[in-house]
Amino acid sequence: MSSMLLAASVPPTPVWSPTVAIIIAASCAVALLLTLGNKSAKVGPAIPGLPIGAGAFIGAMAFGHILGVGIVLGLTSIGKL
Q1: Cβ atoms < 10 Å from Cβ of 58
Q2: pTM here?
Q3: E strands within 5-78?
C-alpha cells in the first residue's frame, strides 16, 4: 500500500524536448554569469577562455542544472510546459 501511495505522489515529468534543453542551458548560463562576479572563483586550475577555475565552473554548472530542473518541474506542475 505504501508503494502505491508513493507512486501517486510523484509529480508528472515532461518528455525531453528542445524547450527543456533551452531552459536548462539558460539556467546554466545564468549560474555561470553569477559565478563570474565572484572574486574567489579563481581558485584551482584555470579554464582556457574563462576567468574562473575548474572547481567554480563545475559548481556553476551543477547549480545551473539544479536550478533548471526546478524551473522545468515548476512549469510542468502549473501546466505551462
Answers
A1: 12
A2: 0.79
A3: none
Q: Is 47 exposed, middle or buried (0-12, 13-18, 19+ CB in 10 A)?
A: middle
The amino acid that residue 20 corresponds to is V
* Residue 49 backbone phi and psi in degrees, to 5: 90, -10
User: Residue 72 in contact with residue 14, Cβ under 8 Å?
Assistant: yes
Q: What is the pLDDT of residues 6-32, one digit of tens each?
A: 666 667 788 899 999 999 999 999 999
State pLDDT tens for residues 42-64. 777 888 888 888 888 999 999 99
Determine the residue type at 65: H
Tell me the β-bridge partners of 46.
53
CB burial class (10 A; 0-12, 13-18, 19+) of residue 61? middle
Please enumerate in sequence order all residues whose Cβ is within 8 A of that of 49, keeping only pairs 6 or more positions apart, or say none: none
Looking at this protein, which amino acid is placed at residue 15? Answer: V
